[in-house]
Design goal:
This protein has 122 residues and is mainly alpha-helical. Helices cover 41% and strands 8% of the residues. The protein contains six helices and four strands. Helix 3 crosses helix 6 (109-120).
């Protein structure tokens, strides 16, 4: 069954003072997210391999630049950009778009959770 963050994130529940997280987020691994962030993915069209670093850089507290358009990307780190990771629809939209462009396919729910776990540590 295919899961999307828009269905997973809203399912975070607060009940009787206890935070209940879906299994995908419990299993999220910031180290795996960091490894995926820097991994270079070969491109089917023969262009240079891409990684998340290609546009966002290694320091997520700093702005990035979209490789094709040159558009400035605001820092990803919630520590300097509190608006990051606050809207599940935006998270799903950008992970879907960027996974397709960078990895050449959609990311799995586990990969998305790992990327978010990594970004949250920045």
């Amino acid at each position: 069954m295919k899961r999307h963050l828009t269905t997973v994130l809203p399912s975070i529940l607060l009940g009787a003072g206890t935070l209940i997280l879906p299994a995908t987020l419990w299993a999220a691994d910031p180290a795996a997210g960091a490894a995926g962030w820097t991994k270079e993915y070969p491109q089917a069209d023969g262009s240079a391999p891409r990684s998340c670093v290609t546009c966002h850089g290694r320091d997520l507290t700093r702005p990035g630049r979209q490789a094709n358009t040159g558009k400035v990307i605001e820092p990803m780190a919630p520590s300097v950009n509190p608006q990051r990771l606050t809207d599940p629809a935006k998270i799903e939209k950008w992970l879907t778009r960027n996974c397709r462009w960078t990895l050449g396919r959609e990311c799995t729910a586990d990969e998305k959770a790992d990327f978010i776990a990594y970004i949250k540590t920045q």
